[in-house]
Design brief:
The chain is mostly helical and about 220 residues long. About 55% of the residues lie in helices and about 10% in strands. It has eleven helices and three strands. A three-stranded antiparallel sheet has the order 1-2-3, with helices on one face. The longest helix has 22 residues, at about 35-55.
């Protein structure tokens, strides 16, 4: 559940996608992009402070990997989904028709905008409380499932340890308009397809394919 804002307009702006500005008859004058910029910085500082205090003996590289997993697009999108942000988001009919309300990247951006709005409305401490309640609870799962490990690097280590050649990735399909592409990638170990994954970029799709392939080599 979202905190109650003292300045309702801040939350309203945080929940406004830029496509809503161009909608016919729209009275919206500002999108959430500036708040997203601010929220991204607040999120990085709060999560860094949290991990720094929680793991006093871990080196910088490990803390960076933990933070990357904690604040990656899919993690933020899950929080945004749980809070119902997609349903409340103002956007154009065209954006909605192409799946904007469930687009992980768009949802993650919206959550960052909400964090930026909360910072302006209630300050740093409120953001710390919000993130502890809604995002940092996922850390145990990240550690248990080793989600902080880069799937492509981990897959390469595992297959080479078994004497196989370096995995190779092939784009098998692309769909959607240029501004909202969806890529599907297969990863091969030798001539065998070891996994397949999709994402909004080739890199995301490769990581998803590697994650799928890891199930076979764990």
């Amino acid at each position: 559940m979202l905190p109650t804002f003292t300045k309702a307009q801040l939350l309203e702006t945080a929940l406004t996608h830029r496509s809503a500005l161009n909608e016919k008859g729209s009275t919206v004058t500002e999108s959430n992009e500036r708040l997203e910029f601010l929220g991204d910085a607040v999120l990085e500082l709060v999560s860094t402070e949290f991990l720094f205090a929680k793991f006093p003996k871990e080196p910088e590289g490990t803390l960076t990997a933990y933070r990357s997993a904690l604040v990656k697009t899919t993690s933020l999108a899950t929080v945004a989904e749980n809070l119902g942000l997609g349903e409340r988001l103002k956007m154009s009919k065209g954006e909605e028709a192409t799946g904007g309300r469930t687009n992980p990247s768009l949802l993650a951006d919206t959550l960052e905008a909400v964090i930026g709005a909360l910072y302006l409305d209630q300050g740093y401490t409120a953001c710390v409380k919000f993130l502890h309640e809604h995002l940092f609870t996922s850390l145990d799962t990240i550690l248990e499932q080793r989600l902080y490990k880069d799937p492509k690097s981990e897959l390469q280590e595992k297959v080479q340890a078994k004497g196989f050649e370096t995995p190779r990735y092939e784009v098998v399909s692309e769909s959607g308009p240029d501004h909202n592409k969806e890529f599907t990638v297969s990863v091969f170990v030798g001539e065998t397809e070891a996994g397949k994954g999709s994402g909004k970029s080739k890199q995301q799709a490769q990581q998803a394919a590697a994650q799928e392939a890891l199930k076979k080599y764990s």
